[in-house]
Amino acid sequence: VELRSPLRVLLVDDDEAVRAAVRTLLEGGGCTVVAEAGDGAGAVRAAHDPSLSFDVVLSDVEMPGPKGMALVHELRRARARLPIVFLSGYASSRHFAAEFRAHGIELVAKPPAPGELLGALQRAASRAQAAPDR
Fold this sequence. Notes:
Elements: E1 8-12, H1 16-28, E2 32-37, H2 40-48, E3 56-60, H3 68-78, E4 84-88, H4 97-102, E5 106-109, H5 114-130
Parallel strand pairs: 1-2, 1-3, 3-4, 4-5
Helix pairs in contact: 2-3
């Protein structure tokens, strides 16, 4: 499965400083951040915006508005096979890891190591491209 290069990312985090740091990391790794949102509701609006084209969502787990699996369901209501990678700074969100994996979602700890984050984005995008249409 060949991926578009560079990967186009919707970046979602309620902490502007985290978004800036992650954006720098992504762009240094060859990705393009095409849009950003500061909460789950903003991410859902972006997913419903037909003018925005992105390959994968990179989102914080814990933030205002829909989060975790609720956010996954809202995003995939807009774009059925949307690849999602979650970032988490909370050890407590590890209990979500199995559920996330069951839905093809990667979970990366904050602060993310560049290789780990870029690998997770590539895996998520590859899985979504390879998935059969429903």
